[in-house]
Write a structure and sequence with these properties.
18% helix, eight-stranded antiparallel beta sheet, globular, 343 residues, alpha+beta, single chain, Jelly Rolls, binds zinc ion
Length: 343
């Protein structure tokens, strides 16, 4: 399987609402029995949900699970350098996320906390590439003022609006990107549709949980509340700090990074933006390719650059491209984002 393959929809049921923007983006009809709780499409996932049934792993169109496919031919899928450094896992979880309601305020452990207390080598730094947003829609990130541990505990105990109010509110629109380092508390507001890159875990500390009906054991990763709250960055996250976490992916012409520099230790999101007569080219890599604007052709050169294959693509197409497919070129009037592991 050396050609790009289209990734099937993979939308495990979640506790919060959403999902119609994913179906619309993908060009799919909303099924008559749609339950309204399919807000995340897990793309090229080797990760399972921490709770809520444990689904999430991608099954390819031929019925093989992605972990099985990777194990059968790791060098082809991931490239020998990646396998030597990271083993037979992409080290990346990519999602489309449609917030049909505001998500609860939560945070994810960083690598050090996950290694020390959760027996896991990955934390969960994540990044949002905003593909669409209702007018005035926002996200929240980081405490504006430093919160002493006892104040954080008190806010979590109270489970009221003060937790959200303590965060930086950021109005977003299509074209924005935001990096969310492990530990930083955050929430995505209703009406925001993002392409999300994450470290490949489902470890969340649900600071807000009661109004979403989440159990405490799920909310705090099975840890004591005090221990779980040690993973939270108590701030402050200042204006200057926020500026280092933001970018505009639509500012890229040709080839460039969608995410701020400090994301590259965790994952990469490369924008390839072609205009008629000016193709854009990216080097061979395992990548989830999401067509975010326009239409055109995606060509892979083949491992030896002598067996090119072309696919017609348009906004909403989601492709999995193995390292062995070779370099990728897009032609036409089209912009894609290539979600890739760290180099
Ligand atoms: Zn999150």
């Amino acid at each position: 399987m050396s050609a790009p393959t289209r990734l099937p929809l993979n939308t495990p049921r979640r506790f919060y609402r959403g999902g119609e923007r994913i179906l619309a983006f993908r060009g799919l009809e909303t099924p008559a029995d749609f339950d309204g709780h399919r807000p995340e499409d897990w793309l090229a996932s080797t990760t399972r949900l921490f709770a809520e049934g444990g689904d999430g792993v991608t099954v390819l169109a031929d019925g093989t699970s992605l972990p099985e496919a990777l194990a059968a031919d790791p060098d082809h899928w991931l490239g020998p350098d990646h396998v030597a450094t990271h083993g037979v896992e992409p080290g990346l979880l990519t999602k489309l996320l449609d917030a049909g309601e505001r998500l609860p305020v939560h945070s994810h452990p960083d690598r050090a906390f996950a290694a020390a207390h959760l027996d896991c080598e990955h934390g969960k730094t994540e990044a949002w590439i905003v593909l669409g947003a209702e007018p005035g829609a926002s996200v929240w990130l980081g405490f504006r003022e430093e919160l002493p541990p006892h104040e954080l505990s008190a806010l979590v105990e109270a489970q009221d609006e003060r937790l959200l109010d303590a965060l930086n509110r950021i109005e977003v629109r299509a074209g924005d990107t935001v990096l969310v380092p492990g530990g930083q508390p955050h929430a995505i507001g209703e009406g925001v549709f993002v392409l999300e890159l994450q470290e490949p875990t489902d470890l969340s500390v649900m600071l807000e949980h009661r109004r979403f009906g989440l159990e405490e054991a799920h909310a705090f990763l099975g840890l004591t509340v005090d221990r779980a709250l040690e993973s939270v960055d108590r701030g402050p996250l200042t204006e200057e700090g926020l500026a280092t976490l933001r970018r505009r992916w639509t500012d890229v012409s040709g080839v460039g990074h969608a995410l701020p520099e400090r994301a590259t230790e965790f994952f990469r999101a490369e924008v390839l933006s072609a205009t008629p007569g000016a193709p854009a080219v990216g080097a061979a890599s395992f990548a989830v390719v999401v067509v975010v604007a326009g239409a055109g052709t995606l060509t892979t050169t083949g491992a030896d650059a002598t067996s090119p294959r072309s696919t017609e693509v348009g906004r909403g197409d989601v492709l999995l491209v193995p390292y062995g497919a070779g370099a990728v070129q897009v032609d036409g009037d089209v912009t894609v984002v290539r979600c890739m592991p760290s180099a």
